[in-house]
Amino acid sequence: MNAGMKRSLICIAMAALAIAASKPVTKPVDKPKETWCVGPIVALDANAGVFTIEVKEQGQSTQTQTSGPVFLGSFVVASSSAASEEQRSFQCATQCRFVTRERPSGATLADFKVGDPVRVTCVGTNAPWTAAQVVHHAPAPSGSRRN
């Protein structure tokens, strides 16, 4: 095989790889949908690991992974809506993560109190609701504006 033929084969192989890499295929990651709710705690039983919030806002997120060029990576698709101020009760999962302003790590449900605004993340999209993460939710300052 001469040098010119080798160069031609290498160029053809590189062109085929470039074409294959430019057509990303979108496929869901093995991560289920998440449902999240925001609102104040209206009832809490830390010993039983149960609490209720008045839902002010809610939504869902799905993580999607693309295969193809590395720069595409993965992304999250989310939707949200104002809620009808219903009350929703949650059972805390065994590995539920709690985050408060005072304790960003190592917090427990007992660190929260009735009236605290929280964002609750649960895996799945239907009841029974099991909380995977409970985070103190500080609303944006009323005087702030984005330009």
Describe the structure.
This protein has a five-stranded mixed barrel with strand order 2-3-6-8-7. It contains one helix and eight strands, in the order αββββββββ. The mean pLDDT is 76. It has one domain (24-136): OB fold (Dihydrolipoamide Acetyltransferase, E2P) (Beta Barrel). With 147 residues, it is mostly beta strands.
Residue share in helix: 10-25%
What is the fold named in CATH at topology level?
OB fold (Dihydrolipoamide Acetyltransferase, E2P)
Q: Strand percentage, roughly?
A: over 45%
What is the strand arrangement across the widest sheet? 2-3-6-8-7
- Count of DSSP-assigned helices: 1
| CATH architecture term | Beta Barrel
**Tally of individual domains:** 1
Distance between the termini: 64 Å
Report the average pLDDT across residues.
Answer: 76
Q: Which word captures the global form?
A: elongated
Instruction: Note poorly predicted spans.
Output: none
Structural class given helices, strands, pairing?
A: mainly beta
Radius of gyration: 24 Å
Sketch the topology as an H/E string, one letter per element. HEEEEEEEE
The CATH class, by name, is Mainly Beta
CATH superfamily: Copper binding periplasmic protein CusF
How is the main sheet built?
Answer: 5 strands, mixed, barrel
Number of strands: 8
